[in-house]
Write a structure and sequence with these properties.
alpha+beta, GMP Synthetase, Chain A, domain 3, about 25% strand, 2 helices, globular, about 45% helix
Amino acid sequence: MPRKSVETKIREALDVVRPHLQMDGGNVEFVAYDSKNKIVSVKLQGACHGCPMAEMTLQNGIGRIVKQKVKEVKEVVAV
């Protein structure tokens, strides 16, 4: 069985948090993975875009889950 790529694992981790964001009218889109610096770039959408709580959601929700599920990731940033 082939190993999953880092990008596939990141997308799967985002799929875990997506329903929680969608309940509040938001969403998250995978933009890129910088393998050298181990940084995932995402775009917050819907109600998440511009929300005062977006940074907390990004770090304590999205980032925490992605880093737990994908050991190759050190940071998640919004672009």
